[in-house]
Amino acid sequence: MKKLLVSLSLCAVMACGAVQNSLADSTLTIGIAKEPAKLNPVLIPGLFGEALAGNIFDTLISFKESASTPAPALAESWEITPDGKLYTFHLRKGITFHNGMDMTAKDVKYTLEAIMNPDNASPSKEFFTPIKSIEVVDDVTIKLHLKDPYAPLMLALGNHTAGIIPEELVSEIGMDEFDKHPVGTGAFKFVEWLPDERIVLEKNSDYFLGEPKVDKVVFRPIPKPEVMAAEIESGGIDIAHQLLPQDVKRLESSDRVTVMTIPGLSNSYLGFAFNKAPFSDVRFRKAVYHAVPFDPAIKGIWKGVGERSYSWIPTGVFPEDREYMKSKALGHDPAKAKALFDELKKDGIIEDGFEFSIYTSQNPFRVKIATAVATELRKYNIKAKVESLEWGTLFPILKSNDLGLYVMGWGSVPDPDRWTYKIFHTGSSMNFSKYSKPEIDKALELGRTLVDTEERGKQYQTVMRTALADDYIHIPLVFKSVTAIVGKNVKDFRPSPQDYFHLVTEKRNVSVD
Description:
This protein is an alpha+beta fold. It folds into two domains: 2-221 and 482-512, Periplasmic binding protein-like II (D-Maltodextrin-Binding Protein, domain 2), CATH 3.40.190.10; 266-480, Dipeptide-binding Protein, domain 3 (Roll), CATH 3.10.105.10. It has 17 helices and 21 strands. Strand 6 (131-138) and strand 7 form a beta hairpin. The longest helix is centred in the N-terminal third of the chain and has 20 residues, at 2-21. The radius of gyration is 23 Å and the shape is globular. Residues 1-24 have low confidence and may be disordered.
């Protein structure tokens, strides 16, 4: 009987939702630059899954209106002990999942333990390892016991990758099947996912923050920015993002759309392998840095939609260290580049005509900067081939031990832990360079436990100065601003620094005429 009820509940979300959609009188269509890899919060590996999942799932606390100050979400209140090792959350009463099942503290415990379970290989696992145990006090009270104080915990709990999932349903159908048919408590219910075509959601009329003003939301993957620009101009979509600078500039004068630009929380960078010659040789990394005129290249490619980055930590996120990091950036110097390449050839580290691949996604900005790097290296008889791959093909290569040079990006919340631990800690799944130093690991681990802001800041300065100003394991490129192109028919939408789509928040409820 229990299995039958679960199956019927899943059917209700999937099939019956389609019937309700036929009666919908308002549809919001959003163009997305890339289709999500996953929608199950436990499995989501990146920005595009997070951007959508925040509308299907709720977290204990919310950062939708403020990227730095938590607001109540599934938890209406909480307490943290003075020693920072016990967090108690009091949940709202009467919250149900989209399939009608009650959401209780047991579901919160199940979700967090699923993230922490190595068998699920959750990309978010690193952010929850400080949790020692999870105690369900009653249906609406849950306690998190920590091994040590952990300053970034609230940001981890408010990230969309910590969306609460229903224990009973997921236990029945499994994590992978749940990814195909996600069920949350959020403002919108999942209806269908047609790969490379659309993801459709419908409103949750019983949403605890208020009934959504949009009946249906359609997310359309449009990987070519020029096509997305044409779609927003013609009215084929209502919201567009990640357009080319020239299209943004042109659309600024349109009376059919509004261009909204805010400072972003995303970084693009050129990364080197730390465990594979010749990329593991700091002389090779410095030679590449000197060989490429990064300042004009970045200015020409991003054309005012971002600012040159010299660190991984954005301006406005502590610890502010931009001037020091800028002073350590290597300038364009062909003579120094040639001398270093010649030295590497003389020492037998590389041969004349050395060939390798620069891996990157299909993001046009990253493809262009990778092409610029390859073009400059040919002047030194270094032959680099740009391989622009879709995410499903690229991600396994990035995680492999056969990587040399790559262009990637990262976006996160305004806390230095989220900008550094995943990228530089030895044990992180997103440390594509395989960068590993005991002093770096120690600083990253200490930064998580310290409460004092100044002392925490010193740890992250150590990480940035060592990794980027001594070892040059990455060449930071640009902190990109976030620009959303919004049809005049859309009301109350605001872009987020992470480039998420927040449609219903504690203060706003997006509508479409």
